[in-house]
Amino acid sequence: MDKLKKAANLTLIVNIFLFIIKAIAGIISNSIAVISDAINSLTDIIASFAIMYSVRISLKKPDEDHPVGHHGAQPIAVFLIALFTAIVGINLIEVSIKRIISPDPIHISTLVYIILAVTIITKVVLTKYQSSIGKSYRSPALKAGAVDSLNDVLASSLSIVAIVGVQLGFRYLDGIAGILIALFVFRSGYQIAKENINYLMGKAADKGLILEIANVALKVKGVLGINELKSHYVGNKFHIEIHIDVDKNTSTEISHDIGKEVQSSILKLPEINKVYVHIDPV
């Protein structure tokens, strides 16, 4: 879990660095596309703080007030990030439309191109890193961060296209690129919200995981069959309720031991946080 915290901290540091250099590029160039890109990075910083805080909370052990753990912290934080990005996207579109109606002069220098190139390269590397750690630890916050980082690569690429277009005489391209970047912000928020709604709504596990759970339970000596298996998300991990068939002549003590073994076996699956085993004598 130290890697999870490290990834969250690194994401924050990188986003602060990128915001600073893109803000400098935006001030130098007066390009709404570059300024929008910088604002996009500012939202990333806010998101990174939320990710870092939610990861820290989600790793806490269950307590009296939260007996099933704190895994819900990450999906809640990410969903709030999605709402925030939507608000930012609306504001960027408004400013960009004004720039199309009344274009402002753009001042392009080699430094602006260098900053945007550094941004793209950094975000490509960060996307791969976040995606790898997010999948390994099944972290919705880091996976959402990877999606957002990929959108940032596209946004910065649009910024470069816009300023090149302005230099070639297409003044309206700056405002158009600003709108497109705002749409990337919207897209990022939508993708993040869509996945995390499943966590918040307690969606059931897919058929593949259910089959895996059933196979794990059936391998336990003394389990004759399974007559019911339910699952639902609590936070970003599943809670499982399973009814196993045990020979009715088996003693209570041995039946209990069988149930505990089924429970511990299923808990070894990384997607599972809690298992409730019901023993049915047959």
Descriptive account of the structure:
The protein folds into two domains: 2-200, Cation efflux protein transmembrane domain (Alpha-lytic protease prodomain-like, Up-down Bundle), CATH 1.20.1510; 207-281, Alpha-Beta Plaits (2-Layer Sandwich). The protein is 69% helix and 11% strand. The protein contains eight helices and three strands; from the N terminus they run αααααααββαβ. It has helices at 2-29, 32-58, 73-101, 110-136, 140-167, 173-200, 207-218, 252-267, and strands at residues 225-234, 237-246, 272-281. A three-stranded mixed sheet has the order 1-2-3. Helix 2 (32-58) packs antiparallel against helix 3 and helix 5 (140-167) packs antiparallel against helix 6 (173-200). The radius of gyration is 25 Å and the shape is elongated. The two termini are 42 Å apart.
Query: Radius of gyration over alpha carbons?
Result: 25 Å
Shape: elongated
Task: Output the number of helix runs.
Answer: 8
CATH class assignment of the largest domain: Mainly Alpha
Separation, N- and C-terminal Cα atoms: 42 Å
Task: Give the biggest beta sheet.
Answer: 3 strands, mixed
Protein structure class: mainly alpha
CATH fold name of the largest domain: Alpha-lytic protease prodomain-like
| Low-pLDDT stretches | none
Based on the coordinates given, report the CATH architecture of the largest domain: Up-down Bundle
Helix content: 55-70%
Classified in CATH, the superfamily of the largest domain is Cation efflux protein transmembrane domain
